[in-house]
Amino acid sequence: MNFIRPEVRAGLWRWREVLITGALVIYGVYILGRGIDRSSVTLTGLGAVMTGLCAVLLFWAILRAKLYKPVSAAGVVEVKEREVGYLAPDGGAYVSLDNLTRLEIVTNDKGPAQDDVFWVLTHLGGDPLYIPASAQGSELLFDAFAALKGVNFEEAVRAMGSSQNARFLIWEKRVLH
Questions:
Q1: What band does 111 get if pLDDT is binned at 50, 70 and 90?
Q2: Residues 98, 101, 107, 111: is their CA dihedral positive or negative?
Q3: Which of 95, 104, 124, 136 is least surrounded, with the fewest CB atoms within 10 Å of its CB?
């Protein structure tokens, strides 16, 4: 017998990393306070390190939760050694992050009945790769794109909430002259 409604359970699952790391930040602050109260340098240092580390993890967990889309699209996303792949019934491709020239999110006004958010990977030597944000394994894209210097995750979060026909530039390779 389930006492939690399915949509509440799904919401808790989506924000699970945030809840866990938030609890660890609070515990780190507790240890820090106990160390200060007892004048213990070791306990104070442990609490400070734990609080700082968990606060950084909390920041990334919040970004990941905001970029999450429930799985509903056909196809599977794979990330292997700086390569992002999308395999779908009608085709697919792999793109090396080293060959990536532009990363965008394209949204449309057809959701939620159809896929309405797509990652667009423009790369050297091929057509852009469109990956639905609701494809299985799409949560791996956040970690893959975090390796790109200068990626704008705030713009990605804004794009994920868009319900209009729009194009959002998330990252572009800088060409050195």
A1: low
A2: negative
A3: 124
